[in-house]
Amino acid sequence: MLKKVAKSGAAKRSKAEQAEHKHAHPEGDTRKIVANAIRGEEKRKEQNQLKTEKSLEKKESSGNSK
């Protein structure tokens, strides 16, 4: 005699279904990519600005010692 075991959350998807339907809205991926690119661009600008400020400080300090 086989007993039927009641599954908790019978509406849950199998792992295969979850993987298949992972990205229901592909436009969301594009938004992530664009946001990541913008953040990277901002970081590069920030780093370049810091580099130029440091090089200016070095020039000023070397000019004062002469």
Relevant terms:
mainly alpha; 66 residues
Q: Can you walk through the features of this model?
A:
The protein is an all-alpha fold. The chain has a domain at 31-66. The protein has helices spanning 15-20, 27-65. The radius of gyration is 28 Å and the shape is rod-shaped. The model has no long low-confidence stretch (mean pLDDT 79).
Précis, in short:
It holds the Pfam family Phospho_p8. The chain has 66 residues and is an all-alpha fold. Helix content is 68%, strand content 0%.
Give the SSE layout:
Elements: H1 15-20, H2 27-65
Pfam family, one: Phospho_p8
Biased composition (Basic and acidic residues): 14-32, 39-66
Region (Disordered): 1-66
Helix fraction, binned, reads 55-70%
Largest sheet: none
Q: Count the helices. How many? A: 2
Q: Unreliable stretches, pLDDT < 50, 5 or more residues? A: none
Structural class: mainly alpha
Shape: rod-shaped
Biased composition (Basic residues): 1-13
Region (Disordered): 1-66
Biased composition (Basic and acidic residues): 14-32, 39-66
